Amino acid sequence: MRVSLSSTFDLDGGLGGSVDMHAETIADIMATLIDRYPSFQQLLDRGVAVSINGQIYRDDWTQPIPADAQVFLIPRIEGG
Amino acid sequence: MGHEQKYVDKKYEVVGTRFNRPDGIDKVTGKARYGADASAPGQLVGRVLRSPHAHASIVKINTSKAEKLPGVKAIITSADLPDVTGGDQGLADILENCMARGRALYDGHAVAAVAAVDEQTAAQALKLIDVKYKKLPHVTDVDEAMCESAPVIHDRIITRGVEPKPTKPSNVAARTQMGHGDIEAGFAEADVVIEKSYKTEQTHQGYIEPHACLASVNPDGTAELWVTTQGHFVFRNVCASLLGLDIAKLKVTSSEIGGGFGGKTHVWVEPVALALSRKANRPVKLVMGRDEVFRATGPTSSTSIDVKMGAKKDGTITAAVAEMRYQGGAFPGNWAMLGCMTAFACYDIKNNQSIGWDVVVNRPKVAAYRAPSAPMAAFAVESTIDELAKEIGIAPIDMRLKNVAREGTLAPYGPTYGPIGIEHTLKAVKDHPHMRAKLKKNQGRGVACGFWFNIGGQTCTDLNISVDGTVNLTLGTVDVGGSRSSMAMIAAEELGIPYEQVRANIADTTSLGHNDMTEGSRGTFSSGMATIFAARDAISVLKQRAAKMWGITEEDVIWENGQALATGDSHSNLPPLSLKEIAAKSGRTGGPIAGHNEVVADGAGMGFASHICDVEVDPETGRSTIVRYTVVQDAGKAINPDYVEGQFQGGATQGIGWALNEEYIYGDDGCLQNAGFLDYRIPVCSDLPFIDTQILEVPNPLHPYGVRGVGETSIVPPLAAVGNAIANATGVRMTHAPMSPPRVLAGIDTLEHAS
Amino acid sequence: MSNATLVSTTVNGDPVQFACPTDESLMTALRNRVGLTGVKEGCGTGDCGACTVTVDGSLVCSCLVLGVEAEGREVTTVEGLSQDGELHVLQQKFIDHAALQCGICTPGFLVAAKTLLDRNPNPNETEIRYALAGNLCRCTGYDKIVRAVQDAAKDMRKASKKRR
User: Fold this and answer.
1) CATH value at residue C107
2) What is the ipTM of this complex?
C-alpha cells in the first residue's frame, strides 16, 4: 500500500511524498517508517495522526487498515 | 473494545430533547466550588513575583530579606524546580515558562514565588525579594521577529522545515507547507486574481475565573492538587513529570471550571504551588490576579498573513496561496501549521498551497484558544473570497457554494473528506430569513465560513447502578459547558430510564483511568461514546442477572425500554423485570451491577459552520455595532440542543469581540499595556443582539449517535463575517483585526480622500 | 493580621461579625471570613461584576468596597436569593434557559438581575442589556441570559398580580 505524508513532514530532506509498504495496522506503518527513516522518530515525538479514508486517527495504533485504503499521515492536532 | 462505533440511525427518547443540567442548582445558589473556593487545614497563601521586563537576564535573586519576614514559610525560584524532564524539550519549555531559568522571556514571566500565612504577608514578601535584572533587547511583533536584525530569543532554535538547514539560530522555529496541485497553472487559468495582506492582533481566552489551585505535598512524595483545569489527568501527568513525583501518588481533583476555551489546557501556577507546598510542607493556595492572567497565561497568536486567490468569471476558484506568520510567544509552537491545515479547508480548490511560519517573540507562551489558529486564517481567506466575488460580480454566498468542499473532496491537509456539512450550512444560510432582512443606512451584511477539526482521544468511564435503580455515571472529562447533562441523557437513553434517575459526576484522578483533556471539541464526542459503551456493558450484566432471577439462559433475555424481557414461547408467561427490580436483588444475584468502558475515541468528525452578520457602522466614529447575527453549524447530532446553541452563541461572541475590540497592546518597552478587563474589552451584554442559531445534523459515521464536536468551530467565521459586513456597509475592506473604531475610521477617511 | 477591625453587619438577613484588615475588600472578607464563596473574584478591579452584591439595596462590585464599610449595613449575596428552601424565580429561569455554561459569572448576574427587576418589573430588552452590562460572561454570548431574565420578569409580574 501507499502511505502519503503531509507536506509538513520532512523525511530525510524531502518534504511530503509517499512511501510504499505492507501494513495491516497503524502500528505497522509507524514501525516501517522508523525502520526505514530513523529521523521519523522525531516527527512521531512531535505528533503524528493517521487519516484512513478521510477519518483521522490520533491514538489507536491497533486500527486495522483496509486493503485499498487511502492512508495519509498528518500532524497531530490539539484544540481549545 | 468490542463495541460498535459506527453510526446507526435510530429514534431517540431522551437524546435531542432539553434537560436541565445537574449542576445548575449549585451554580445559581453559589454552592458550586471553583478553583479558588477550596481550603485546607493550615493552608498558606501563594503569590508569584513576575518580571517587569520584556526580556532580561536574571543576574541575582536575593530572597534573604523576604525570608526573614515573620509569616513567610517558603520562597522558591527555579532552583527549587530542578529540571527533571530528561531531555523532553516540550516539557522543559513548560517548566521554564512556569518559572524563569536565568532569563525572563516576557513581561509577566514568573521569577520567584512565596508562600506565607496570609495575603498581606505574601504581598509584602514579594516586595522584599530583590531581583537584579540586566535588560536585553526584545521583540514582540511577529514580522519584526523574523527580520535578520531581530534579537534572537533562543540560541537553540534552528528553523525546521527549511532546506538547506539554516546554520544560524533565529526566531523562526519552523516552516510548514501543505496543499496540492499546480499553483502557477491555477493562476494562469484565473480571470481575476486578488492579493491582500492581513494582520490579526493577539487575544486572550478571557475566562472569567483566573487560574487557581490548592496544592499539598507530603514528605513521602504523596500529593494532592485541587485545580481549575480542562483536564486533571493531563495536569497530573505533567505536574508529576515536572516535580519528579510518581503519577499515581499525585491525586488531582478538578474543581468546577469558570471557563477555559483552551487556556486551561496548560499548566502555569500548578507546579509552582506544588513546589511551594513541598518546601513549606503545608498546603498552598495559589490564585492568579487578572493582570497575571493577561500577562502570563494563554493568549492566542498575533499573525500576519498574505493571501492570493484566483478565480474564473463563473466563480470557480482556480488557485489559492496563503503565507501565514504566527507568533507562539516566548516558546515555539505549531500554531502556523494549524493555520495552514484550516485556511482553505472549506473549499474544493484544485491548486492550493499554504505556507506557515512559527515564530517566537517576547510575549507569553501561546496556548490553544478555541479552534486555535483557524480564526486568523479564516479572516484572511474569507475576506479575500468576498473581494474576489465583488470583482467577478457574483454573490458571496454563491461564490462559496460554487467552490464548497464535499464528501470526496481532497482536503488541503491531505486526505479525502468523508461526509461533511459545510455545503449544508451554506445552503441553510442562503435560505435563512436573515439573508432577506432589510438593511438600513450604514448597515451591511457579511457571510463567512469556518472549519475546525474534532479530536477523540483517551477516555474512561464508569457506570454504577445502585440498589434502588438510580445510576451513578462517573466521567473523567471535565464539564466545561454543561456536558454532565448530555452524558446523563446518553446513559438514560441507552438504559431506557428517565434522565432524573442518572447522576453524572466528574471523578478525581484516583477514581478512574486516564482521560484526555476537554479540548478539541472532544468532550461530548468521546465521553459520550464511552458512556454509550459503559451503559451497554451494564445492560449485558442486567440481562445476566434477569436470566438468573428467572432461571433461564441469558440468550433468552433482551433489553427494551428499561426492562428485561424473556423471549421465546416457553418464557412468554414471565413478566418483565425492570432495572429497579433487578438492581434491588443485585446483592443476591452476583453483587453490584456496573458497566465500564475505556476507549480511544478515534474517528472524530469535522466541524463546519457558516455565519451571517449584519453590522451598522457609525461613519462619524467608526464604531461598528452588530445588528443581527446568525450561526449555522453542523453538530452531527445535538444531544442537548440547549448547550449546543450555547456553544454556537458563545463562540460567535468571542469571535465578535476579536473582530471589533479585543487586542493585546504592547508598548515600546515590550510590556503589556492593557492587562485588565477595562482596557482589554470583551463584549458586554449591551454590545450584542440575540445570536440566532440553526443546528444541522449531518451524522458523523464513526459515532454511534453521529455526534460531532461542536465547541470550537463557532469562533472561526466571525472575524471575516464582521469584516465582510463592514466592507458592505462602508466600502472599506478592513485587513487588520480587531476592526476597532480608529481603524475603521481611518479606512473610511482613506476611502473618502481617494474619491 | 495587622490593623484588624471588628465589623458588625447583616449578611443575607443574618447578623454577622468578622475582623478584617482595614484595607481588605468586602469581596475578600465575604469569601474568606464569612465563607460566602458564591461571591466570585474575576478581576479585583470592578470590571467584571462576578463579585456583585448589594449593600443596603445598592448594586456594588464587592471588590471595590472595603470590608469595614459593611459596618451597620445590609449585604445581600447570591446565597441570600433563595428563600425558604425555594429557588428565586431568576435562579430557576437561569437553569431552565441554560443561561449558564461555566457558571462563574452567574452569581453576579443573578444579583444584578434581581436588583433590576426589583426596580423595574417590566424592562424591555435594551434595559435588561444595559442593566447587565457591568457583568461579563465569556461563555454564553448573553443570549440565553437575557431570555431567562425576560421570562423571570414575566413570571414575577404574574405572581405579583395574583398577590394583589
Assistant:
1) 1.10.150.120
2) 0.98
